[in-house]
Design goal:
The structure holds 2 protein chains of 2 kinds. By secondary structure, chain A is mostly helical. Chain A has 16 helices and 2 strands. Chain A has a domain of 222 residues. Helix content of chain A is 72%, strand content 1%. In chain A, a hairpin with a 4-residue loop joins strand 1 and strand 2. Chain B folds into 2 domains: 161 residues, 3-Layer(aba) Sandwich (Rossmann fold), CATH 3.40.50.300; 72 residues, no CATH class. A 6-stranded mixed sheet of chain B has the order 7-8-9-4-10-11, sandwiched between helices. In chain B, a hairpin with a 2-residue loop joins strand 1 and strand 2. The chains are: A mainly alpha, B alpha/beta. Chains A and B meet through helix 9, helix 10, helix 11 and helix 12 of A and helix 2, helix 3, helix 4 and helix 5 of B.
C-alpha cells in the first residue's frame, strides 16, 4: 500500500517537475531559461563529483580537467569541416579530425568516453594516494590537461579556443541528461556495488578485509565520475557555444565542490538542490558586483563581492551544519509527509 | 588447513614476528596468546595480506598465498575481525553484512546498477543469508539500526557475523573478548564453539587473557617479543615455566 502510494507520488512529482520545466521554457526570457538549463548541467557535474567525494570518499580536485576533455571532444566532433576551418586560422587542424563529424548524441557519448579514458590513465597512478595527496595530484593532472589543450594548437586551436559551437544544449536535452544522471546515481548507490563504495569510504581496511577489491572500486568510481564530468563539460560547451582553456580552471571545480558540500556530501537530493540554489544565487547576487548606492556610501562596483557571500554561506554551513543541507540523507515521501503530519497534529492540540 | 613457514616480519630494525611456524588442522580452534606487543596482530596481518612477510611463506589449503592482496585472500576463504572494531559507521547493521556478501555475489557495476534479473536474484539470496546470519546471533531485530549505535558486545558479534558473510573456511578473531566482563567472555567462547560447528570453520583467535581461551582452544601458541616461546594443549601451556615467566615475570 505504502510503497504503491509513494511510487504514485513520485510519478506525480516527476510529471509536475517536467510540466514546470516545460512552462518555464515556454514563458521565461532567454536569460532565465539559460540559468534554468545551467542548473541542470550543474546537477550532472555535482552528482559526478559527489560520486567520488561523497560516496567513495575520494577527494578529487581534477573535475575541470575532465570537463575540458569532454567539452573539446564534443565540440570538435559536432563542428562541420567549414566551421573548423574558420576556427583554426592560426594553424590548420589535423586532417582526420577536420573531416570527422558525428551527430550530437554520439559526440556526447564520445565526450564522456574520452574523459573516462583520460581518467583510466590518470587514475592508475593517482589512486594509490589518499586524502589531501590525492586532491593535490588530481589538481595537478587537471592543470596538465589544461596546459596540453592550450598548446596543442592543431588539435584544439590552443588559447584561441573554439567559437560558434552549435547550441545543442536545449532545455529538454540538458534536463533529460540531468534526470538520467539522477536515476543512474540512485540505482548505482542503492546497488550492491554502491554499498562497496560506501564501505571503502567509511573504512578502507575493513572493506579490503571483507573481500572488496578497493583499488578496482576506486578506479570504477573515478572513471564513472569522469565520464559524467565529460558529458557535463560537453553540455556546457554546447550551451555557451564558445570554449577556451581558461574556462576550465580550479575555480570551476571549486564551484562544483561548493554545490556538493552545501547540498550534503553523499546525498543525491542534496546535490540536486545545491546545484539549483547555487546556480540561481550566482546570478541573483550579481547586483552585488555592480555599482551600488546606499544612502551615505557609494561604491563603483566590487567585482567578486558575490563570491564573498558564498564564502560566508560556506562558513555558516561548516559551523552549524557540517554535513550540508541534506547530510547524507535522501528525500523520501514518508519523511516529507511526516513533516506536515507532525505540524497538523500539534496544531490540533498535540494529539499523540 | 593453514601453515606458516618461518614467517618473519621486520619493520626497519624492529622484528615484530620472527620465525613463526603455525600449523592448524581443519575444524580446530587454536589460540594465539601473549603479552602486549608480542606480535600477535602482526602475525594476523601477515596471514591476511595486510603485510607482506619479510621472510617465510604462508600456505593455505596447499596454496602459497604469501604477499597476495587482502581481498584476494578473503576470496580464498580467510576472514578476520579487528581488535579495534571496524564497522562501517554510516551503514546500518544489515548493510554491514551485505557488503561482505558482495564478494560471493560476483556482480559487476553494470549488472548491479541496472538491477538485471540475475543480480536481483543474487541480491535477494544475499539478503536472506545476511538476515539468517543476523538471526543466529540475535541481531535481526536491529537490522536497520546504525551499526555504531549497537552496544559494544553486539558490535563485536556483528563483526564476527560480517566476517562469516564472506563464507570463510578459516576465521581469524583478533581479541574478540576485549573489553568484555568474565561472564560475557564465557558466553562468547560458547558462541565461537557453536559457529565452528554450524559453519564448518577452522578458527585462530588472538586473546590476551589466558583463562578465557583455555576453555575453547584445543591447542595454543604463545608469543613473546615476536618469538614463539611455547605451543601445546592448554594444560601444557599452563604449566610451562617460560609462559609463566613471560606473563608474570620471575621473582
Amino acid at each position: 500500500m505504502k510503497i504503491k502510494r509513494n511510487t504514485l507520488l513520485s510519478l506525480a512529482g516527476i510529471a509536475l517537475l517536467a510540466g514546470a520545466i516545460a512552462v518555464a521554457d515556454a514563458t521565461l526570457g532567454r536569460f532565465s531559461v539559460r540559468i534554468l538549463n545551467l542548473s541542470a548541467i550543474y546537477i550532472v557535474l555535482a552528482l559526478s563529483l559527489n560520486l567520488l567525494n561523497g560516496f567513495t570518499g575520494l577527494f578529487s580536485l581534477g573535475h575541470a580537467g575532465f570537463m575540458a576533455v569532454g567539452a573539446y571532444v564534443s565540440a570538435l566532433l559536432t563542428m562541420s569541416p567549414a566551421q573548423k576551418d574558420m576556427n583554426f586560422f592560426l594553424e590548420p587542424i589535423v586532417p582526420f579530425l577536420r573531416d570527422l563529424q558525428l551527430p550530437f548524441p554520439l559526440a556526447l557519448l564520445a565526450a564522456g568516453a574520452c574523459a573516462g579514458l583520460v581518467a583510466v590513465v590518470i587514475g592508475v597512478p593517482a589512486l594509490r594516494l589518499r586524502d589531501d595527496y590525492l586532491a593535490i595530484a588530481t589538481l595537478g593532472f587537471a592543470e596538465i590537461i589544461r596546459v596540453l589543450i592550450t598548446n596543442a594548437q592543431s588539435l584544439t586551436n590552443g588559447a584561441q579556443g573554439l567559437k560558434a559551437i552549435t547550441k545543442y544544449s536545449t532545455t529538454w536535452v540538458v534536463w533529460s541528461v540531468a534526470a538520467l544522471s539522477v536515476a543512474f546515481m540512485l540505482a548505482l548507490v542503492r546497488s550492491s556495488y554502491g554499498r562497496t563504495m560506501k564501505a571503502v569510504r567509511d573504512d578502507e581496511v575493513a572493506a579490503e578485509a571483507m573481500g572488496v577489491n578497493v583499488f578496482k572500486v576506486k578506479s570504477t568510481s573515478f572513471v564513472i565520475s569522469s565520464f559524467m564530468a565529460g558529458v557535463g563539460g560537453a553540455l556546457l560547451g554546447h550551451m555557451i557555444t564558445t570554449i577556451d582553456p581558461k574556462m576550465f580552471t580550479l575555480t570551476l571545480t571549486f564551484n562544483i565542490l561548493l554545490i556538493v558540500v552545501l547540498g550534503g556530501n553523499g546525498s543525491i537530493t542534496g546535490s540536486v538542490i545545491g546545484a539549483i540554489v547555487v546556480t540561481v544565487l550566482m546570478e541573483a547576487l550579481r547586483f552585488l558586483d555592480m555599482p551600488m548606492n546606499f544612502l551615505f556610501i557609494k561604491t563603483d562596483g566590487l567585482p567578486g563581492l558575490r563570491m564573498v557571500i558564498f564564502s560566508i554561506l560556506l562558513m555558516i554551513v561548516v559551523l552549524y551544519r557540517q554535513r550540508g543541507l541534506m547530510g547524507n540523507k535522501e528525500f523520501n515521501w514518508d519523511d516529507f509527509l511526516g513533516i506536515f503530519r507532525r505540524k497538523g497534529a500539534s496544531g490540533a492540540g498535540g494529539r499523540s | 588447513m593453514i601453515s606458516t613457514k618461518d614467517v618473519s616480519m621486520r619493520f626497519g630494525g624492529l622484528t615484530a614476528v620472527s620465525d613463526l611456524n603455525i600449523e592448524i588442522q581443519k575444524n580446530e580452534i587454536v589460540g594465539l596468546i601473549g603479552p602486549n606487543g608480542a606480535g600477535k596482530t602482526t602475525a594476523f596481518n601477515t596471514i591476511t595480506g595486510v603485510y607482506k612477510p619479510t621472510e617465510g611463506r604462508v600456505i593455505f589449503k596447499g596454496r602459497d598465498i604469501t604477499g597476495q592482496k587482502p581481498h584476494a585472500i578473503t576470496r580464498l576463504g580467510i576472514a578476520r575481525t579487528f581488535q579495534n572494531i571496524r564497522l562501517w559507521k554510516d551503514m546500518d547493521v544489515l548493510e554491514n553484512v551485505l557488503v561482505a556478501c558482495h564478494l560471493r555475489m560476483d556482480v559487476g557495476v553494470a549488472a548491479s546498477t541496472l538491477h538485471l534479473p540475475g543480480y536481483r536474484a543474487k541480491e535477494r539470496r544475499s539478503r536472506e543469508f545476511a538476515m539468517s546470519l543476523l538471526e543466529s546471533v540475535g541481531l535481526a531485530d536491529q537490522a536497520h539500526e546504525a551499526a555504531t549505535s549497537l552496544p559494544y558486545g553486539k558490535q563485536r558479534r556483528l563483526e564476527i557475523v560480517r566476517a562469516l558473510a564472506t563464507e570463510p573456511a578459516l576465521l581469524l578473531l583478533d581479541e574478540p573478548a576485549a573489553g568484555m566482563n568474565p561472564q560475557e567472555s564465557l558466553e562468547l567462547m560458547d558462541f565461537i564453539g557453536s559457529i565452528r560447528d554450524r559453519y564448518d570453520l577452522t578458527i585462530l583467535l588472538i586473546e590476551h587473557h589466558m583463562q578465557v581461551v583455555m576453555g575453547v582452544c584445543s591447542r595454543m601458541y604463545v608469543l613473546d617479543y615476536g618469538v614463539t616461546i611455547a605451543h601445546g594443549t592448554p594444560d601444557e601451556i599452563r604449566r610451562d615455566p617460560k609462559v609463566i615467566e613471560a606473563y608474570l615475570g620471575v621473582d
